[in-house]
Each structure stands twice: as structure tokens, then as C-alpha cells.
Design goal:
Length: 241
């Protein structure tokens, strides 16, 4: 049974973040001059960005527990603590929301990769990505689950959502391929390796293992799965001793 989703705490301000005025301000009044006006504009932008983030986080929760069909713009707005119509104001349509969610998940993965322990470029970075992906999957990471569901929807619906997922996929492959090429230049990786092919094999293995753990808990120990995949990738890429 799907886990019950807890509503996000309501924003401190109950004003609609899509408006251009601060709470309690007179929309027809002359805007403050100089630094005060700049501070107000920054605050408005921050409020809009915060609203967008909250809606995307709630959309991710909905997709990961109820699927794409069970996710609505209205519920995403209400769950985030805003008006039912605000998601449409931000994203235009449900498809627009889902495309933004793909981009939001990609940014989150990229941030997680950057904030992880610094890996030396080359084979260490490749192995670091492998390890990080498996760890997030085993932890039932909500973004990873939502992404897999979005991939399924993209296969079915095609169109702009599929295009956004294709961009996500190509960016992931490009990162792995780039690190493999760096490893080859450093002599860490065999000269006869095909970087594009290896990147596809690695990403395919990660996605396949991800689905296994997200569907349930396989009998295999997660740590041993991680170690086995790391060893497999390392042996496939390293020059023979």
C-alpha cells in the first residue's frame, strides 16, 4: 500500500507567491526607491522560487507513491500548502510540471554528486557515481523511484516528457563517458575501451539494479551488490597488470 503523504508545512506568508507585492503592501503604491526596491524584488523572486521548489517536492512525493496518473496539479499545490491553481501558474500544465520535475531530479542528482566526497577525475569518479547511485537506490530514495516511474510514463506518452527524459539520459551518459575518457588519458583505463559503449553498459546496470531494489528487497545483500558492481566495473576498465 502506498505510504501516506504528509503535507508540507505551510509557508510563513499566506500570500500567493505568484503575486508581485509583499504581504500587506499596497499594490497601487509607488515602489520603494533604491536598495529597498531591489530588496523587495529579490524577496519576490525568492518567494516564487521557493514555491516552485515546494510544488516540485510534493509532485515528486505524489509521483513516487501514486504514479503519474494519480498525480494532479491541484493536489501538488494543496500538498505544498498553496492554492490549487498555483502549479498551473508556475508550470502551465501537468506535462509542464512533469518536465520540470525531471529537470529538478537531474539537478538533485548532480548536486548529490558534487557534494559527495571529492573523487579524482577519471576512474575514481566513475566508481564514485556507481557507488552513490546504488546507495541512493537501496535507501529507497524518493527521487530515484519517481524517476523510474517517469521513465515508464515517457515510454508510453512520448512527446515533450520523453524528450526531457532523453536529455536527462544523454547528460548522464555524457558525464560517465567524459570521466572514462579522462581515465584513458591518465592511463587508468585501457586504451581499447569504447567510452560510449562502457558508459551505456554502466548506466544500464545501475538502472537495472535500481528497479530490482525499488520493486522490493532482493535476497542479495545490498552492500555485496554494490561491491560486486564496483569490482565488475573496475576490472572491465583497468589496464591488465
Amino acid at each position: 500500500m502506498a505510504a501516506r503523504i504528509q503535507a508540507a508545512p505551510k509557508p510563513v506568508s499566506q500570500a500567493d507567491p505568484a503575486t508581485d507585492t509583499e504581504p500587506g503592501s499596497d499594490a497601487g503604491a509607488e515602489a520603494p526607491a533604491g536598495g529597498a526596491a531591489r530588496r523587495q524584488r529579490r524577496t519576490q523572486l525568492e518567494r516564487r522560487e521557493e514555491a516552485g521548489r515546494r510544488i516540485l517536492e510534493c509532485a515528486m512525493a505524489l509521483v513516487s507513491t501514486k504514479g503519474v496518473a494519480g498525480t494532479t496539479l491541484n493536489e501538488a499545490g494543496e500538498l505544498a500548502g498553496y492554492s490549487r491553481g498555483l502549479p498551473a501558474h508556475h508550470f502551465g500544465s501537468k506535462e509542464g510540471l512533469l518536465i520540470a520535475l525531471v529537470e529538478y531530479i537531474e539537478a538533485g542528482f548532480r548536486e548529490a554528486r558534487v557534494s559527495a566526497d571529492p573523487w579524482e577525475e577519471g576512474i575514481e569518479a566513475v566508481l564514485g557515481v556507481v557507488s552513490l547511485y546504488i546507495e541512493r537506490t537501496v535507501a529507497q530514495d524518493r527521487a530515484t523511484r519517481a524517476l523510474n516511474i517517469l521513465f515508464t510514463e515517457g515510454f508510453i506518452s512520448g512527446g515533450p516528457l520523453a524528450d526531457a527524459l532523453d536529455r536527462f539520459n544523454r547528460n548522464s551518459l555524457a558525464h560517465l563517458e567524459g570521466q572514462i575518457r579522462i581515465g584513458m588519458d591518465k592511463g587508468q583505463i585501457r586504451e581499447d575501451v569504447d567510452p560510449a559503449a562502457e558508459a551505456l553498459v554502466i548506466l544500464g546496470a545501475l538502472r537495472g539494479i535500481s528497479v530490482q531494489f525499488l520493486l522490493g528487497t532482493p535476497s542479495a545483500d545490498p552492500e555485496r551488490v554494490r561491491e560486486s558492481l564496483l569490482r565488475t566495473v573496475d576490472l572491465a576498465l583497468r589496464p591488465e597488470a
